[in-house]
Every structure is written in structure tokens, then in C-alpha cells.
């Protein structure tokens, strides 16, 4: 696997590097519009998602003069599945990101982490703080809502193959429709959503584009238990500039969760995106404006 031999496609180059334990990790590498204006931006997706989540905003950021790297974490998209599902945890993902940064010779970057991607970013801050220049936590924080985690636990790893893209669109609408109420009747939106989150198998059937074993992270989920408090990780991350973006309807990051982050880090920048649940795609006008303003103020 050679990260030095990229393949150009659709405005980005495809990179494949080897993780520490030898798995193939795939990433999209968007070159900056020259001249470069700042450090690269690393976009990390959520639990069941992949690099295609950033196919709208990554070219926009690259047009600002910043290189953008969007990997598929192990077990998702074009990255290899892990034969040991116990490795599907943020601590291992963080090591994968570090290996990717080393392979691409990126010493420091700005991180944009959606949901699980934000958790990976917080872990990174504790093991390699010098690699993070600034960070954006998209609909995630050190204190997560049990209700939202329970919703995710109810569907992750449980989807069944479907026969058509129309069925795939209905499947993602049924799971995610409440998070995007203004898109409820927008068929084109859900078809695009399906294309980002499903893959076609050799037999023509369509299935979610991740290893079902990632659900192991929720195997012991207890709706009556308090989720782990990651405040110590967030405190370390807060040594550098942080922007919190929250979906106004989010059931993962509550207003109280944002208030807690602000208490821990009075310099925290915040943005709330109305009529969006978990999680903003970041191309919503208010989300994009917040991200644009933040990037303009960091290296």
C-alpha cells in the first residue's frame, strides 16, 4: 500500500495507507486551490458513515486554499474491515488517523469531527496534542445524551439488504427523517443520502456501507446508565481553539451539554443549526458560515 501513488478522481485523490496492524485505510485527499492559506483540514465521519459525508464541504474548504483529508475509518467505506471487532473503538481509530497523518507527511492540522469523529479528535488531543491546531466538534461533546445513544443502538448493525436505490432511500429516511424534518418530502435528498451510506454488492443487492460488527460498541448499552464523562479529554482539546456546532433538534448533544462545554472552556465558539437533528451535514448555511468564520481565524 503506497500513499505516494494517488489516483485522481472527482476533484480528489484516493489514498490507501497501512494501519499499524496492517489494515488498508482509504482516504480522499482534496488538493488546495493555490495559494495555500492555512493548515490542512482532517474531516472525520460518524459511527455508521464514511468519507462521502464530506463530499459537499470538502471541495469548498479546498477552494479556500486548504488541503482536505477525509478518511474512511476501518470497517467503513473502502477501508478494510477489522477481523477483531474489539478494535472498533475511538482509541484505535485515533491511532489510524495518526498513521495517516504520518504517511501523508502532515505534522499539524485542523480537525472537523462529526459525532464519533469528534470523539476520535478528543482522544487524539490526549495522545498527540501537537498534531491538532484547532478543532470543530460537530454535534458531539464530552457529555452525551442517553436518549440519543439509545436511538443509535436501536439501528446500528441491524439493517437488512434492499433491492433498489429507492428502497435504500426509504430506509435512510425512516431512520434519519426526524433529524431533517424540512427534508421529509424531498426524495432527491434521501436518494443522495442513500448513495453516501449504502453500497452495492456483487449480487446487485444494496447494504449499509459498514461492517455490522461496529455495533459491538453498543453491545453493553444500558439506557439506565450514565454515559462516560469525557470532560478530561475535552479539557486537553480546549488548549487549542474549538468550535462546537450543534443541531438544534439533536438528541445526542443537548443544550446542557453545550453549556457544560462552555463552562469548561469559556473561549469555546458555538453555533446552533435550527431544525436539524443529529447531525448537521455542515453544508447548511448557518453551519457553513460558522465553519468558514472559524477557519478564517485559525492557522
Describe the overall structure.
The chain has 299 residues and is an alpha/beta fold. The protein has two domains: 7-157 and 229-297, Rossmann fold; 160-209, no CATH class. It has helices at 57-63, 90-103, 116-127, 146-155, 165-176, 187-197, 231-237, 255-264, 285-297, and strands at residues 7-9, 12-18, 24-30, 41-44, 68-71, 109-114, 132-138, 198-200, 206-208, 242-247, 269-273. The strands form two sheets. The chain has a nine-stranded mixed beta sheet with strand order 1-2-3-5-4-6-7-10-11, sandwiched between helices. A two-stranded antiparallel sheet has the order 8-9. Helix 2 (90-103) packs across helix 3, helix 3 (116-127) crosses helix 7 and helix 5 (165-176) packs across helix 6. The longest helix has 14 residues, at 90-103. Mean pLDDT is 94; it is low at 1-8.
Features:
two-stranded antiparallel ribbon; disordered N terminus; 299 residues
The gist of it:
This protein is of the alpha/beta class. 32% of the residues lie in helices and 18% in strands. The protein folds into 2 domains: 7-157 and 229-297, Alpha/Beta hydrolase fold, catalytic domain (Rossmann fold); 160-209, no CATH class.
Distance between the termini: 31 Å
CATH second-level architecture of the largest domain:
3-Layer(aba) Sandwich
Can you tell me the number of structural domains? 2
Mean pLDDT: 94
Considering the protein shown, what is the CATH homologous superfamily of the largest domain? Alpha/Beta hydrolase fold, catalytic domain
Coarse morphology: globular
Tally of extended strands? 11
- Give the spatial strand order of the biggest sheet: 1-2-3-5-4-6-7-10-11
Please give the radius of gyration in angstroms: 18 Å
Q: What is the helix fraction of residues, given as a range?
A: 25-40%
Topology pattern, helix = H, strand = E:
EEEEHEHEHEHHHEEHEHEH
Range of strand content: 15-25%
How many helix segments?
Answer: 9
Q: Can you tell me the CATH topology of the largest domain? A: Rossmann fold
Largest sheet: 9 strands, mixed
Amino acid at each position: 500500500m503506497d500513499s505516494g501513488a494517488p489516483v485522481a478522481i472527482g476533484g480528489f485523490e484516493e489514498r490507501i495507507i497501512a494501519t499499524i496492524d496492517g489494515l488498508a485505510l482509504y482516504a480522499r485527499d482534496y488538493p488546495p486551490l493555490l495559494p495555500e492559506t492555512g493548515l490542512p483540514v482532517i474531516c472525520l465521519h460518524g459511527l455508521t458513515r464514511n468519507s462521502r459525508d464530506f463530499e459537499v464541504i470538502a471541495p469548498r474548504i479546498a477552494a479556500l486554499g486548504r488541503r482536505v483529508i477525509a478518511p474512511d475509518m476501518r470497517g467503513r467505506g473502502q477501508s478494510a474491515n477489522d477481523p477483531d471487532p474489539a478494535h472498533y473503538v475511538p482509541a484505535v481509530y485515533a491511532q489510524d488517523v495518526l498513521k495517516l497523518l504520518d504517511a501523508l507527511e502532515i505534522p499539524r492540522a485542523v480537525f472537523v469531527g462529526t459525532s464519533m469523529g469528534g470523539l476520535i479528535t478528543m482522544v487524539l488531543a490526549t495522545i498527540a496534542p501537537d498534531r491538532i491546531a484547532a478543532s470543530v466538534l460537530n454535534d458531539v461533546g464530552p457529555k452525551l445524551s442517553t436518549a440519543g445513544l439509545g436511538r443509535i443502538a436501536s439501528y446500528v448493525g441491524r439493517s437488512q439488504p434492499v433491492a433498489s436505490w429507492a428502497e435504500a432511500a426509504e430506509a435512510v429516511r425512516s431512520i434519519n427523517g426526524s433529524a431533517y424534518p424540512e427534508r421529509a418530502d424531498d426524495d432527491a435528498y434521501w436518494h443522495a443520502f442513500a448513495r453516501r451510506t449504502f453500497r452495492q454488492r456483487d449480487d446487485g443487492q444494496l447494504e449499509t456501507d459498514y461492517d455490522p460488527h461496529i455495533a459491538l460498541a453498543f453491545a453493553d448499552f444500558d439506557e439506565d446508565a450514565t454515559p462516560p464523562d469525557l470532560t478530561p479529554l475535552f479539557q486537553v482539546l480546549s488548549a487549542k481553539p474549538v468550535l462546537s456546532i450543534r443541531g438544534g433538534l439533536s438528541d445526542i448533544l443537548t443544550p446542557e451539554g453545550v453549556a457544560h462545554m462552555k463552562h469548561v472552556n469559556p473561549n469555546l465558539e458555538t453555533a446552533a443549526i435550527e431544525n436539524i437533528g443529529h447531525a448537521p451535514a455542515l453544508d447548511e448555511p448557518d453551519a457553513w458560515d460558522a465553519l468558514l468564520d472559524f477557519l478564517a481565524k485559525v492557522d
